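haha ok so turns out i had the wrong file open the whole time. this is the CORRECT one, sorry everyone. sequence first:
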Amino acid sequence: MRKMCLKNVFLVAVIATFSQGFVHAQYLGYAFHADAKKGEQLYRESGCKSCHGPDGRGAPKAIAGFEQPSTFPDFSKCDQTTPEVNSAYKGVIVHGGPSRGFSQIMPAFGEALSSEQIDDLIAYLRTFCTSRRWPRGELNLPRAMVTEKAFPEDEVVLSTAVNANGAPGNETHIIHEQRFGVNNQIEVDVPIEFQDQNRVWYGGVGDATLGAKRVMYSNLDSGSILSLFGGLLIPSGNRARGFGSGTTTFETFAAFDQLFKSDTFIQTQFGAELPFHTSIAPQSLFFNTAIGQSFGANHGLGRLWTPMFEFIANRDLSTGAKTDWDLVPQIQVTISHRQHIRGDLGLRIPANDTTGRQKQIVFYLLWDWQDGKLNEGW
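then structure:
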């Protein structure tokens, strides 16, 4: 009965999501044919220049007539503008600042400008950032439950897996990701585990990860981005309790993501875990891939729904080892108006070699802290 309930809940969520998505426009679509020249004329004639200034840095208070709030954009700063997707800008222009939890000094232009004019205007706003080295926010695909994406992030994630059958237990990862420079990111991942072992509960910290990721290639026109990662798993977990490997492990992987114009995307991750002492823990290879589709309410400008399906593979490099496969159906949804708070819910299902490998209810809460505080953007 419990298994049927879990499946029914997930099925209802997916059906509701797809019906919502098919009614409304998509989220990650990019206006490839927008005209920045026409956008420049609109910028100067529709009042944008009087507040945002001729160079996108913001007009002086004496001209604009107001004190700039802390969230006021500087369109010339690439680190502020390139992570944003066009739909985020369009939502603010169409519905005004409060629609995304920003200041009410930004009025709504949805009735004054057509959708095509707004696309042209956004294309012109993009020209204020003169560097083309920064990966664009459209390539920042929705985070999957297991597969690591290629885009460098500023996020805090609480990700939890709870055993749905077999011995009770759960594992929560506290993940901090921080971008630096144009293409780099550092990452800290601390797992906390609780397990029922022979009817006695034990808990503790697992093996923590310290790592760095770098974007090697990104192209908005093709929708492609490639990154490389290298890190160390510190043996901070209790090996006797099954919370750690007992040895320092080097982890490396390549992550390649592909976005299509239909807003369908594929994320792939291929890597290895290489313990320093293979007599304690075996070396292993892993391959993860996620396939998903994003849908947005309110013509692609509102709440985002992203159903995804992951294929997870892991194989120890030891004699007689088999490749373990898991399937992870899931759905991510934006929670805040600013979309910097998101949640994901799914089910991790062993597809083979199920002895000792339980089904798990998996979920996370994500905070993109660069886009605002936890209490902002609602």
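The first helix runs from residue 2 to 23.
again sry for the mixup
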